[in-house]
Amino acid sequence: MIVSMIKKSEDSSQLLRVTITSNKEIAPGVYYLSYQRTHDFLAGQVIKVSLDENNPPRIYSICSGNLDPETSILFNIKEGGLLTPKMARLRPGDNLLVSAPYGGFISSGQSEWWISTGTGIAPFYSMIRSGLGNKCRLIHGVRSESQFYFQKEIRSVMGEHYMTCCSGEEVPGSFYGRVTDWLSALDELPTNIKYYLCGKALMVVDVRDLLIERGIPFENIMAEIYF
Ligand SMILES: Cc1cc2nc3c(=O)[nH]c(=O)nc-3n(C[C@H](O)[C@H](O)[C@H](O)COP(=O)(O)OP(=O)(O)OC[C@H]3O[C@@H](n4cnc5c(N)ncnc54)[C@H](O)[C@@H]3O)c2cc1C
Q1: H helices then E strands: how many in the chain?
Q2: Span 24-53, pLDDT tens digits
Q3: 60 lines ligand 1 (CB under 6 A)
Q4: Backbone φ, ψ for residue 12 (5° rounding)
Q5: Given the CA of residue 79, which atom of ligand 1 is nearest to it?
Q6: pTM value surpassing 0.90
Q7: DSSP label at 56?
Q8: Which of 84, 105, 106 to mutate to test the pocket of ligand 1 (most atoms within 8 A of CB)?
């Protein structure tokens, strides 16, 4: 077993020391980091991550399936950030402190629309790998084509229900513009399903406002904001 307990509680404020099994740069400045799975979790949940006990942890969505042998996160380097520039330099065999998974951004298992930008794809990729992608539609917005993480795998599961929007360049097969532009162009939006939004605050607020304007009840909108 490569995991040693720092504290025994499963409370998310307690951190466990884990050993990194891989940390790959999958797009410029964007990393997919994995360690051997320590806990059961529900797709959509998050973990706290830190390099050592002296630094405050940051929160990351789990970006792997609930039965995958490894737990993974997807993160981008924030210049001047406390954690991500150092985390990007970690290699297999290095240690990281992680919490037990927690959080309530959980799929209902019914038909849903999932809307994300950038690394906000993480909880939805976890849901897809956990077998929850069949009844849902995923809209992913990015600035450049290299940021359509896991595109092939997602397309193979979701087919036409996976919509990509690229705002920074024209990409064949993708909508040229933001997710809000794509949503605005639709004649109708289903009002009787749940919408799950994940990404930066600005996108989440803009999409939420748009959905409410289009008649989606507030209680049908779930949001996970990366602040
Ligand atoms: C629920 C949740 C889930 C999340 N999931 C993910 C995820 O899956 N993937 C992901 O990439 N991120 C995710 N995040 C964001 C993540 O937690 C971190 O905030 C992010 O990775 C940056 O961490 P950092 O320590 O490198 O940067 P920080 O130290 O937090 O700094 C962030 C930026 O602010 C600037 N800054 C810092 N301090 C100051 C200051 N005093 N004044 C002005 N500027 C300042 C820094 O230069 C940097 O550019 C999530 C956040 C939440 C809340």
Answers
A1: 5, 12
A2: 999 999 999 999 999 999 999 999 999 999
A3: yes
A4: -70, -10
A5: 49
A6: yes
A7: -
A8: 84
